[in-house]
């Protein structure tokens, strides 16, 4: 409970710290508070404990996912020092909203009551609606925020209807009780449970951007401020999958209802998103479609529900987050230099004067593509193993084809950096920026050579 | 331990070479260490024959998924290591006297590729094999991208994606095999002990075979090869054709035939048919080529088609022939591509229509070219003959018509190679070729030993055959 309280209070402190007009203290306070939360979380490792009348259960699963979320947020905050250079207003509000979103993440990873799941999703989403529109005078940002809010509200309503039906079928909101009922052969009115599950699946699918519930993603990712896009692509996705897995792991006995549906959604997502990304020139849109395809891969682990699933989701989220931080960070820098919307062409010739940035970008792109000795390769590998363990072989073939299509557009950026003519000068980088990029790239490589470091956690 | 050092020598050299700014120094260091590696290989060879040294290296790598860093040497991998480390010095030597920008990156990439290929040949853990397989692909992608010829971005990307498709399918099959082993193991010996049901083997066969079929390549998965060979820089082409494609043949011998014997016997004739179609198809297209490099690329498809057909013929003698022919083809193709490179350096063209009468200006060059060419055609007393003869003897066992059509490779091979030789070396000299100077110095140093090997191996092949006989014998004991 303490970590939750610290986090909530941290958000409020940040809001008040904004009153002092001293923007330099914000990041230290935020990072300090997050580190404190992390420390408090680790005290509970190995001793699962539930709070609020069994509504929240902090176990190893939630601690692991919360850790990834916090570490990612810390790195994003460090990047934001560069991002908000020269910005005077509303920085504290941005940070406070991110912390509140993180609070929602905590609830989503540790719920043991489906009402808490809903509260978590809402707590996560509402600050995000505001964050997406943080650039008040940008038309795109307003559009992103509005679209996200409208579609998000709709999908939350559908999710809530699903929750209500599950309650109606089982008579309880508590996850343990529901799990018992489902496992012991569900009796009187299975139909209500099934419909409830499908509606909940749709709600989740929206949140993590699975086709065909993904239509908000390219526009919202493109329109939001790049820092917020990064936050959405990493932390929110991690939380979404943690919650997705945590809920559906108790629904394995009725797998025949939702596993086949997931199969189709995954196949559609993997192929559709990669094909759509092929034509993208706008980097943020391209990364949005790539993010949708990664959702497809992570969903394979949810569908397979094998013993390795939580490990593989955790590893994939980690690999994907670190690669994304590098890519978005460098994108921010290049966009700022070029004063443009950031296309693939903006990266032309980057390697000539900025070998460090180009190498970091190349390694992260190779990680997203799933090439060996990067973390992304093992991430995809674990997903395939998870699927094959429970005999889902053909979906891995679809995954392989999708990965191959992905290679094309990721490599196009690498080729642009090393091979095409561009006029990018040697970019000035602050030491903090360089440090963040260096750390994330290093972790991508380390996890690619020693994946055992992050395996077998559960 | 010795095996690990074999892989580390090129890898560490590659890391070191990255930091050398002077291109000549880069090349000299690379060449020197590659000869050191060759000497070390002979040491390992002696240790292997005398059964002394510790050639097996096994270290736990990723316990969570049961992957060990397990490498070792047996007769077959000894041959492949010998092939790699024997040809690499020649490949590096061929880069001397040539302007190569950013030589440190180029040679580092080639050294990394060499290290990865050595890893492929010595890996005894399935996952490790896959990792090395992929790792060898990345350097060559960049070599072609940065130093290649026309349209290289798209050609190298096609090559990369095509090969990656095969590799990933192979990975899925390996993961499946991993789950079938009791207790979960990636060890080759555990895979071989599996004895899966024929239906399972049948499906798995295609997953794994496709990866190797794309690598060799076998018709109809060969479309990436001619363009890639043509557009790659000559050292890249040599690496690709002499060593990398042997990874495909090796893969069949090491990971397909022993692990899925029932699948191989079921689909063997299909594989043979595809290979032989490839032979005929590629030979006819080679005839029509004007670019020397593309011609040799197609000839390579034809020759490897013969090797592949032999692999699935189900006879010991053909397997021996396949192993021998791998070494032979490597030697011959390096020499051929180097010869083409020399012509291109002097005359700035590879077009047959523009060449002619070089023999008048360069008799030594012409003599060496003739020897290598005869080796490619498989004239008796050359190395090519030994390998192909063994292969035909094996293929006939499957059916006379297989051998008849496969033998077309010899006939067609003679046609296009002699045609090319005649057009390029003999005949009227023209204004362009009048400027040709004969080979000397480094060029001789590369070509003479290779030409010598063509003859020596043709006259005295027994040591190589002895090297691989026990491994092939074990393969053959399986119900094939």
Sheet having the most strands of chain A: 2 strands, antiparallel
Number of helical segments with 4 or more residues of chain B: 19
The backbone outline of chain A, from C-alpha atoms, is globular
The best one-word shape of chain B is globular
The share of residues in helices of chain B is over 70%
The counted number of beta strands of chain A is 2
Using the CA coordinates, give the radius of gyration of chain A.
21 Å
Count of extended strands of chain B: 2
Blueprint of the fold:
The complex is a heterodimer of chains A (458) and B (480).
Chain A lengths: L1 H16 L8 H17 L6 E3 L4 E3 L1 H24 L7 H19 L4 H19 L6 H32 L4 H9 L6 H19 L7 H8 L2 H23 L6 H24 L4 H22 L4 H30 L11 H4 L1 H15 L5 H15 L3 H27 L11 H19 L9
Antiparallel strand pairs in A: 1-2
Chain B lengths: L1 H16 L5 H28 L6 E6 L4 E5 L3 H19 L9 H20 L3 H22 L4 H29 L7 H5 L5 H18 L9 H7 L2 H23 L4 H27 L4 H20 L4 H32 L10 H4 L1 H15 L5 H14 L3 H26 L16 H18 L2 H16 L3
Antiparallel strand pairs in B: 1-2
Helix pairs in contact in B: 1-2, 1-4, 2-3, 2-4, 3-4, 3-10, 3-13, 3-19, 4-5, 4-10, 5-6, 5-10, 6-8, 6-9, 8-10, 8-11, 9-10, 9-12, 10-12, 10-13, 11-12, 11-17, 12-13, 12-16, 12-17, 13-15, 13-16, 13-18, 13-19, 15-17, 15-18, 16-17, 16-18
């Amino acid at each position: 409970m303490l970590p939750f309280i610290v986090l909530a209070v941290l958000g409020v402190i940040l809001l008040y710290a904004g009153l002092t007009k001293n923007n330099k203290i914000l990041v230290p306070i935020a990072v300090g508070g997050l580190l404190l939360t992390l420390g408090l979380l680790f005290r509970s490792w190995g001793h699962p404990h539930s709070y609020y009348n069994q509504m929240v259960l902090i176990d190893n699963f939630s601690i692991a996912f919360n850790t990834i979320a916090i570490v990612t947020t810390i790195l994003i905050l460090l990047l934001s020092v560069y991002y908000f250079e020269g910005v005077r207003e509303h920085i504290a509000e941005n940070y406070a909203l991110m912390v509140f979103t993180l609070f929602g993440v905590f609830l989503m990873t540790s719920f043991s009551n489906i009402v808490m799941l809903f509260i978590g999703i809402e707590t996560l989403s509402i600050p995000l609606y505001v964050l997406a529109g943080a650039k008040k005078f940008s038309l795109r940002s307003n559009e992103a925020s509005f679209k996200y809010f409208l579609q998000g509200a709709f999908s939350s309503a559908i999710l809530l209807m699903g929750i209500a039906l599950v309650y109606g079928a089982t008579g309880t909101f508590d996850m343990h009780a529901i799990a018992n009922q489902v496992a012991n052969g569900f009796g009187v009115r299975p139909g209500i449970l099934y419909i409830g599950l499908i509606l909940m699946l749709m709600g989740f699918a929206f949140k993590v951007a699975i086709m065909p519930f993904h239509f908000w993603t390219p526009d919202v990712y493109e329109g939001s401020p790049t820092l917020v896009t990064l936050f959405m692509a990493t932390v929110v996705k991690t939380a979404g999958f943690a919650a997705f897995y945590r809920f559906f792991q108790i629904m394995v006995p009725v797998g025949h209802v939702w596993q086949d549906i997931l199969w189709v959604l995954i196949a559609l997502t993997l192929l559709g998103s990669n094909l759509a990304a092929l034509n993208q020139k706008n980097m943020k849109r391209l990364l949005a479609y790539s993010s949708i395809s990664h959702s497809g891969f992570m969903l394979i682990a949810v569908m397979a529900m094998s013993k390795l699933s939580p490990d593989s989701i955790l590893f994939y989220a980690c690999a994907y987050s670190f690669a994304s931080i590098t890519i978005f960070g460098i994108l921010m820098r290049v966009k700022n230099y070029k004063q443009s919307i950031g296309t693939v062409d903006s990266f032309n010739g980057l390697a000539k004067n900025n070998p460090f940035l180009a190498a970091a970008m190349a390694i992260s792109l190779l990680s997203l593509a799933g090439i060996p000795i990067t973390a992304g390769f093992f991430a995809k590998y674990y997903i395939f193993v998870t699927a094959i363990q429970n005999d889902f072989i053909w979906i891995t073939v679809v995954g392989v084809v999708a990965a191959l299509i992905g290679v094309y557009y990721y490599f196009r950026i690498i080729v642009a950096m090393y091979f095409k003519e561009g006029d990018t000068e040697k970019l000035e980088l602050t030491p903090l920026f360089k440090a963040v990029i260096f750390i994330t790239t290093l972790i991508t490589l380390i996890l690619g050579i020693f994946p055992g470091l992050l395996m077998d956690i559960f | 331990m010795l095996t690990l050092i074999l892989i580390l020598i090129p890898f560490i050299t590659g890391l070191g070479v990255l930091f050398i700014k002077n291109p000549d120094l880069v090349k000299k260091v690379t060449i020197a260490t590659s000869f050191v590696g060759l000497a070390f290989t002979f040491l390992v060879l002696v240790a292997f024959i005398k059964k002394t040294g510790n050639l097996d290296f096994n270290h736990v790598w990723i316990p969570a998924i049961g992957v060990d860093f397990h490498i070792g040497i047996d007769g077959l991998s000894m041959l492949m290591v010998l092939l790699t480390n024997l040809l690499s010095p020649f490949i590096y030597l061929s880069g001397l006297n040539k302007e190569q920008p950013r030589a440190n990156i180029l040679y580092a990439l080639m050294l990394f590729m060499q290290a990865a290929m050595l890893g492929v040949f010595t890996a005894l853990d399935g996952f490790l094999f896959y990792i090395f397989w992929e790792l060898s692909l990345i350097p060559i992608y960049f070599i072609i991208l940065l130093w290649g010829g026309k349209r290289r971005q798209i050609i190298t990307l096609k090559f990369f994606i095509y090969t990656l498709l095969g590799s990933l399918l192979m990975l899925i099959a390996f993961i499946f095999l991993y789950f079938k082993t009791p207790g979960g193991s990636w060890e080759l010996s555990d895979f071989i002990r599996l004895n899966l049901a024929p239906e399972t083997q049948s499906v798995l066969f295609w997953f794994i075979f496709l990866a190797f079929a794309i690598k060799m390549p076998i018709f109809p998965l060969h479309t990436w090869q001619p363009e890639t060979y043509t557009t790659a820089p000559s050292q890249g082409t040599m690496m690709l054709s002499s060593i990398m494609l042997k990874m495909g043949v090796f893969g069949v011998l090491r990971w397909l035939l022993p692990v899925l014997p029932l699948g191989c016997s079921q689909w063997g004739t299909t594989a043979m048919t595809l290979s032989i179609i490839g032979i005929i198809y590629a030979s006819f297209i080679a005839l029509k080529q004007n670019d020397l490099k593309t011609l040799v690329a197609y000839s390579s498809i034809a020759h490897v088609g013969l090797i592949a057909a032999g692999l699935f013929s189900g006879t010991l003698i053909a397997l021996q022939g396949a192993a021998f022919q791998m070494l032979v083809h490597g030697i011959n193709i390096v020499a051929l591509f180097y010869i083409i490179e020399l012509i291109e350096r002097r005359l700035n063209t590879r077009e047959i229509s523009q060449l002619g009468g070089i023999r008048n200006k360069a008799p030594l060059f012409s003599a060496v070219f003739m020897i290598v060419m005869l080796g490619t055609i498989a004239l008796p007393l050359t190395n090519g003959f030994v390998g192909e003869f063994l292969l035909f003897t094996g293929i006939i066992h499957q059916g006379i018509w297989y051998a008849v059509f496969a033998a077309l490779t010899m006939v067609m091979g003679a046609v296009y190679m002699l045609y090319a030789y005649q057009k390029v070396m003999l005949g009227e000299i023209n204004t362009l070729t009048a400027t040709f100077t004969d080979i000397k110095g480094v060029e001789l140093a590369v070509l003479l030993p290779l030409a010598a090997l063509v003859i020596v191996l043709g006259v005295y092949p027994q040591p190589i055959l002895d090297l691989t006989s026990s491994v092939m014998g074990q393969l053959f004991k399986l119900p094939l």
